[in-house]
Amino acid sequence: MTVESTDVLIIGSGFGGAIAAYYLAAGGARVVVLERGPWLEGQDFEHDFLLGSSNTRVFDFVAGDGMSVLSGNCVGGGSVVYFAALPRAPRFAFERHGSIGRRMWPAAITRDSLDPWYDRITEAMIVEQQTWDDVTYAGGLWAAACDHAGRTANPVPVGVDRAKCTNCNWMMSGCRFDAKRSLLFNYIPAAVAHGADVRPLHEVQRIARTDDHGYRVHYSHVDDEDYRVHTGEGTIDAKIVVVAAGAGATPLILKRSEDSLGTMPHAVGRYFSGNGERLNTAVINEERVRDVLGLDRGNGLAYQANQIGKGPVVASWDRLSASLPEYSRFSLEQLYFPPGLGTILAQAPGAEDPAWFGPAKKEMLDRWKSWLIIFQMTEDDNEGVFGPPPPTGNAYRISQQMLGRGVLHYDPTPNTLRGWAEADAEVKDILERDGLAEVTPWTNDVVGAYTVHPLASCRIGDDPATSALDDRHELRGHPGIFVTDGSAVPGALTVNPALTIGALAERAIPGIVRAARARGVPVRYHDAVPSGDTAPSPRAAGTGELSNTA
After folding, report:
1. Is the preceding omega at residue 338 within 30 degrees of 0, hence cis?
2. pTM (whole model) above 0.90
């Protein structure tokens, strides 16, 4: 078999992979990016949920034991399917002790030291603070309810071109109007412009050592329609490997590589965090909203607008205070979750257990336009542990696309359960006041807990016993392998983590450049931030090969 070679091999094209690809390619290194999912953009994003549509092609839903993970599966990763909420993590998040009883984050990283890197990615993504003029009906209702209950609420900073946004509310399925400033408009096209070779439908299986102290990456070609089918395989040698496959896949690639790489650090595949996430659905009493809050959107309607607008526009951050004890700090964010998983997991208020199906649930579904969904991001105990990796990929594939059975085990601790309960109580107090709504958390009985922001399964830290990476993101005991995705974040952040993942990746680049130079790669640190309005890159066929082989 022909073995290709490159300077830097990057696994994954989300925030961690795309940022590394841009800076290393712009600095002069030969860069190849292997992405498991397809390359879609613009008009490829369809407004339906049919199997084979963009909605099922760009998502990866993996059901584990006690925790299920929803993540991106496409060029651009989570940035293509997220709601583009881009807040910075609160200062106290960097001082958390969590389950280890001492500061989790490396001493070298604080909110102050990370702020310059936050500034860089904020510039690249063109993060803008929404105003009250941008707020949707759902966001306005949440803000009004918070005010009525004596709480504050704020518009959320986002990476959205507000002039292009049509309020179609299909943001989670990719934006066909190019309003969402995903990685398809900044780091990825800039990387391609500097020569990076981005290959979709390439799933990395394992990494091995080479005789010259480099690494050999083994991958499979994934069928475009049935992700269970592999249509070929290949290998690429590289002097530097950057693993950025996501917190639900990165540890499994590394664990599967132990036979050839040697023992992994103890923390690989441990200390997984779901960012403490939980969802509540409130069924709004339209008459009470009109009478108590004085809301009226015309045509005799007080609300009935769950489906109108876009992703999160308003959040309540009253409980993001360093004065509060750990596990009592959380954010509450209004969120539109499209039909499908949300309608299955939403429980009917006041129904007998189980409340996620039956007559009461059917009646609740009839009132779906009057739903208000609140997303809670709390502090958990990093209690997730991955079992032995499946033979290929990150899960045992169940369907052609999207659905798999994973090996993550998650048993929430009393600390995590207390954090969820306090957040639930806060939402209930705000929205059930004066009969505005009936509030019920989503069920954990069907797929366990769930997260759209998986973190910490290969985290950075100072203690080798509890962190897989040093503070430069290099894998302990395996020089030349770096991890720059959400798995490197030490723990739950209490806010949407995308900007923090990106800032950490930005911070890691100078160290990766130094390591590459030490391995003979002629690369420099290119410190210019990519333009936030770069045109999308032409899609690659995904079957190209490098010109030089070994």
Report:
1. no
2. yes
